[in-house]
# Entry
Amino acid sequence: MLSQIATQDACLSCGACCAHFRVSFYWAEGEMIPNEMLEVLTPVYSCMKGTNQAQSRCIALEGKIGEFASCQIYEQRSSSCKEVQVADSQCHKARTAHGLIPLIEIDPAVPSNDDGYDQVV
# Structure
């Protein structure tokens, strides 16, 4: 299977998670989010408008999925948004649903033969 190495800014060209999952959270988290972007689910839970439907797309998502994406309320986003991390299983599921190549996390190799030598910068 093809894959792409994850980078810190991979989300800026993706947005797949914002157009795949229902973004629901405890009502109090919505206090910092504009009311016109919220949908009440129950007396205890709310969600972002646009995410509680079959063809989900968060109202706060701007841009085109897979090319350029940004969140209008990034600093105020809910904990459910913060839980999805680049290259995790949720990211993989959302990217696959949108026909995007999955991201993989690669740990940098630790040199094994540099003991006792100064690092050249």
Observations:
- The beta strands are 4-5, 24-26, 38-40, 45-48, 61-64, 68-71, 103-104.
- The radius of gyration is 18 Å.
- The CA atoms of residues 5 and 107 lie 10 Å apart.
